[in-house]
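Side project, low priority. Logging it here so it doesn't get lost.
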Amino acid sequence: MYNIIRKTTAGAPDLNQIYQHSLQLLSTLISTPSFSSDEMLTADAIESFLNLSGVNTFRKYNNVWCYNKHMDAEKPTILLNSHHDTVQPNGQYTRDPFNPAIEDEKIFGLGSNDAGGSLVSLIAAFLYFFERDDLPFNLCLAATAEEETSGELGIRSILGDLKDISFAIVGEPTGMQMAIAEKGSMVLDCVAKGRCGHAAREEGDNAIYHALKDIEWFRTFQFPIMDGQPQPVKMSVTEIRAGIQHNIIPAECHFTVDIRYDHNYNERELINMIINHTSSYFKIRPNVLKPSFIDLTHPIVVSGCSLGRATYLSPTSSDQGWLDVPSIKMGPGNSARSHTADEYIGIDEIEEGINIYIAILESLDLTHHKNVLRFEKGTDINPG
């Protein structure tokens, strides 16, 4: 289906062919169901596409990664990462979610925007640079699984297998602006305790009333932060369950709290604050995502700003939370379309994404930033 990418008369890869191959690959990914933890067929498709493009690949579970042709251990390595798993299609779809229809210069289908457009654009940029022997950096492309569920067999499972990474571009729909910080994510399963009794008599101790006090605290409390800065922590009660019968005072009330927090606070500080202000018992769910943050003077940020890219703090989470190196989140598409019915991405958005990824990498100046380009595996660079 795919041919080796042609070279122009000047020796550069043919961008028009790269655009076409990217759309073909995206169509293949849309038409191939790839729900989280069940992405084998899309991993096969990505691996085949890269192999037919002359790239040697590595694979673990449903994660596929590779390196540029002239890898040099003395140079810093940039990770280009996005995911190929999707959520389940919701019941409001009016189109076949697995039919990659192109209408009005848009390609429709589940995963087109989140994050197929970012993935194929990063693959295109990787292939554009693949054979270059004069790059001041190495490229590691990783198409990973289980992002939507923060699964253990996604990017976390291959971090120990990758060569040392200096920094990363994580592909998610951001309109090709740069998310230079991303909130972490932590979920608490809470239970307020009371005592059973008959609802008609003054008996028992209603656990719901205890839960309501804590829920109100989660709703209204604001973590301290410097004036003029965005709120660093957002806590939302998203589930509640109590009672077994209308005439029995409930002895327990269970509720769930979704917490999003930035680099101003760490997990221990959040937990201590919650313990000091609430009475409910709680457990922290596994797979806590760390917040991410990258300095505005980092070369990748400087390069993006020089091309007119804006910076912002992202309220959503991604695989950035598993990385122990500086990273930006950036990709074609619009985050507001993610997980919605009749998902789509513009063909022009994909072409723009490819062009901007290439331009950012071409304009990178690493000469005066050696101190930020070497991180050993396992080093935690997040403040706090």
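Brief comment: The first helix runs from residue 15 to 31.
Revisit when time allows.
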